[in-house]
Write a structure and sequence with these properties.
Two copies of one chain form a homodimer.
Chain A: H1 2-18, H2 28-39, H3 45-56, H4 65-87, E1 91-92, E2 95-96, H5 98-105, H6 115-144, H7 149-179, H8 187-214, H9 220-246, H10 249-252, H11 258-261, H12 267-275, H13 278-287, H14 295-307, H15 310-329, H16 336-350
Antiparallel strand pairs in A: 1-2
Helix pairs in contact in A: 1-3, 1-4, 2-5, 2-6, 3-4, 3-8, 3-16, 4-6, 4-7, 4-8, 5-6, 6-7, 7-8, 8-9, 9-15, 12-15, 13-14, 15-16
Chain lengths: 353, 353
Amino acid sequence: MLEDIKKIADRITDVVKNDKYGKEIKPDYLREAMFDYPSRGGKRLRPALFFWCCKMCGGEELAGLEKCAAALEVWHNWTLVHDDIIDGDVMRRNAPTTHIALAETAGKKFTDTDAEKYGRDMALLCGDLQQGWAVDLLIRGGEEAKLAPSLILKMVRRMELRANVELISGEALDVELAEREIDDITVCDVMHMIDLKTGALFRCACELGAMAALGYDKGREFEKISDFALYLGRAFQLQDDVLGTFGEEKKLGKDIGSDLRERKPTVLLLKTLEMGDDISLEIIRNVLGRDDLSKADIEAARNAMVRSGAYDFVKAETERCFASALDALKYFPMNSGRCNLESLIEYLYSREK
Amino acid sequence: MLEDIKKIADRITDVVKNDKYGKEIKPDYLREAMFDYPSRGGKRLRPALFFWCCKMCGGEELAGLEKCAAALEVWHNWTLVHDDIIDGDVMRRNAPTTHIALAETAGKKFTDTDAEKYGRDMALLCGDLQQGWAVDLLIRGGEEAKLAPSLILKMVRRMELRANVELISGEALDVELAEREIDDITVCDVMHMIDLKTGALFRCACELGAMAALGYDKGREFEKISDFALYLGRAFQLQDDVLGTFGEEKKLGKDIGSDLRERKPTVLLLKTLEMGDDISLEIIRNVLGRDDLSKADIEAARNAMVRSGAYDFVKAETERCFASALDALKYFPMNSGRCNLESLIEYLYSREK
């Protein structure tokens, strides 16, 4: 599986770096920015889901399909470009975010210009361009793979449903959650947001792979694939939240405790507030939203999360989601596609140990 | 022609208001914002170009085509939503812009929230949703009109080229022009920007109409249609620039003199700087970028523009562009489509008298 995903990642990087879309884009720095995130690498989880679901449903390795897979990655990336503007993030995958990079390279070329605003404005347009690029890639890939034009149209519309309507709703709900009072937010609200923000694009990747293989877009296979993708997305996100407070900074490459500092309404936090005794609650309320968290504060918060039973609850829920994802795959015959998907679940599951 | 465009406008408003796209979008205020601009009306020039070019190329009035036409309007509108964020505009068609409206309706629901930023963030996502809606509408319209799926794919790709790559490049160049020193900008730079920012979507509308009628996407018809659309776009924009300084505030519903206040590098301004004598130059340089322009200042600037010969130059250029647009239509047989397009040119031409 790890070898396979490495190969897929290389193919995707190759496709996006050499793609001819938008040769005419001006100014040049905008065109270069469009290629930036998609060329930076990353896990390429969505293209892998596409290929493995295609294979699991009996699909062939058709030339062109890597463009369809790359379309999912480009889509994912434009949402990151716009997310980063909204969140004001400055780093992504060890390099400046698009709006920061454009402020530096383009914004500073002009005297009397607000370089930061210029960077944000150009990054906004950059994400817009990438959304179009993703659609164009999906169509060209489908045509090269000689899929039926009517099927390609269905694939584009599926992408607009899952990756536009649902994913952007998830992003909007996430932005909204950050503004709401934490006591008014339910676990159900957060799970719903996760299904949309993370699950919908996983689901899109899996469904498009199945559609490319099967030539149709409805039926029992799609219910099973939907279950698999949504449970995988939930498990992935619940785990991420646990690692965000309990992980090791070095391994994760991200700042431990930032969820607490930002009062991020994770299931882990909501469950602690729901299940915790008075002492746990006092500890948690004392650290939430504080900028000056010490290691001892984080350790105290961890203890409160464990003592309250929230930690075990989230671990058990994560496990249940991984198990349900695995269970959904049993509907399909065993082949290299299903095998890779099962190994992926194993691999992600062991990430937290 | 005027009666026909009124009918088209009503049909488009009907289509966008009742469209089922994105029923699932959350939060509700985001879904409502998505429908806002497209439901506000406006000239519906792009849908009219689509229908009339379709007719001129022998196309039938097929059910579904109004969705394709509406796709062009929705596309136009998402670019306005993002433009308005970039420009910080507060009003559009006599109502608050999307980001201002969302700041009011959504942002102010939360205590301690920066409502203006919240409005901008949600408007950013709103424009992203509208881009997907436009693609989905075009596909559904093509399918309802029973166009060949391979043709619909070509239409989507044409929209991604003209309305994404080219139009967004035009928007980016426009943002860039505003930051450059006026003496470093050439008339050629501005014309290039106009062809992309205004011409490309006109061209897209005309080409999609012709494709729906002809079933193919290349050939002499498309060269002629491209000439028509680009010249029409240039004439339209040059005229707009003249009206921006010489028009009547009441008729235009826009602030006369704002181009001077904002140092907008119009062809009219660049030509005045190029052709003006010392006195004209002094007058112009004195008013440029000033916030406190009096009516006398604007009158002085007008005189300088006329005296320098720039006014006549731009009027002649506008006339030449309208004539070239008219000339391109002569390639096509006379029918109601061509007749409406000719009347449109006449109508727009007489706008400045």
